[in-house]
């Protein structure tokens, strides 16, 4: 698949088959993704790949903690709730997802169930927990590098028939993630990528988010035309 087609067709997957993913496939994906741009080739990233019982334990404990009203405990600084145009875009995609899933606005149990699915990393068979070296904080450069690596992972996965969703909900409790995955304190847990074979019968998998027109966020400076 050429790169343009790959980017245009890739979408977040929120429903996965229970089929396991061979370790060799994940290794191949990482081999490709690690060529992502990195500031001065510092490569500040680490990837912790979870499956099986450790992943089941992580999602169960994360879900139980968050469902019980526990406070979010993430390593990275959160922006808090979105406001303005960013909140509007968040609401728009939620409306699309709830519509195809048949979740009514006043159906609190179903809305809560959707949130819990996020805390469970949408029951994906694989979770890649992305971290970076704590010694590089504070600073956004290593965050940028990790974002490039993350996008490389999801594109390489899609090219091999795997779907993914970049999922901060799945690691709301960094302390639990660190304990189960045995991640050293010298690493900052940034996000995770839930990954697996897409379940084409899951309605939300057909949803594509809207994107702003180029004129809304692009400026051309110094061009003659």
Structural features, described:
This protein is an alpha+beta fold. It is 42% helix and 12% strand. The protein has helices at 3-9, 23-33, 52-67, 84-101, 108-119, 141-159, 174-181, 214-217; strands at 45-50, 126-133, 163-166, 187-196. Strands 1-2-4-3 form a 4-stranded antiparallel sheet, sandwiched between helices. Helix 2 packs across helix 6 (141-159) and helix 3 (52-67) runs antiparallel to helix 7 (174-181). It is globular, with a radius of gyration of 18 Å. The protein starts with a helix and ends in an 8-residue tail after the last helix. The model has no long low-confidence stretch (mean pLDDT 91).
Q: What is the fold's blueprint, element by element?
A:
Elements: H1 3-9, H2 23-33, E1 45-50, H3 52-67, H4 84-101, H5 108-119, E2 126-133, H6 141-159, E3 163-166, H7 174-181, E4 187-196, H8 214-217
Antiparallel strand pairs: 1-2, 2-4, 3-4
Which tags fit this structure?
4 strands; 225 residues; 8 helices; four-stranded antiparallel beta sheet
Rg, alpha carbons: 18 Å
Strand neighbour order, sheet with most strands: 1-2-4-3
What is the mean predicted local confidence, pLDDT?
Answer: 91
> Helical region count?
8
Which geometry do the CA atoms define?
globular
Helix content: 40-55%
- Tally the beta strands: 4
Question: Which class best fits the helix and strand makeup?
Answer: alpha+beta
- Main sheet record: 4 strands, antiparallel
Q: Uncertain runs with pLDDT below 50, 5 residues or more?
A: none
N/C terminus separation: 33 Å
Percentage of β-strand residues: 5-15%
Q: What string, H for helix and E for strand, traces the elements in order?
A: HHEHHHEHEHEH
């Amino acid at each position: 698949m050429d790169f343009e087609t790959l980017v245009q067709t890739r979408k977040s997957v929120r429903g996965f088959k229970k089929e396991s993913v061979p370790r060799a496939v994940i290794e191949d994906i990482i081999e490709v993704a690690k060529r992502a741009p990195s500031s001065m080739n510092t490569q500040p990233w680490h990837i912790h790949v979870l499956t099986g019982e450790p992943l089941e334990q992580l999602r169960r404990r994360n879900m139980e903690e968050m469902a019980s009203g526990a406070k979010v405990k993430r390593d990275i600084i959160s922006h808090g709730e979105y406001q303005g145009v960013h909140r509007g875009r968040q609401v728009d995609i939620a409306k699309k997802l709830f519509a195809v899933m048949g979740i009514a606005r006043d159906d609190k149990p179903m809305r809560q169930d959707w949130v819990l699915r996020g805390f469970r990393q949408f029951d994906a068979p694989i979770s890649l927990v992305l971290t970076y070296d704590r010694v590089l904080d504070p600073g956004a450069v290593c965050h940028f590098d990790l974002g490039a690596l993350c996008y490389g992972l999801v594109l390489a996965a899609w090219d091999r028939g795997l779907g993914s969703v970049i999922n901060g909900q799945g690691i709301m409790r960094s302390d639990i993630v660190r304990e189960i995955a045995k991640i050293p304190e010298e690493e900052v847990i940034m996000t995770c990528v839930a990954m697996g074979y897409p379940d084409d019968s899951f309605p939300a998998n057909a949803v594509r988010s809207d994107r702003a027109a180029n004129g809304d966020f692009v400026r051309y400076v110094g061009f003659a035309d």
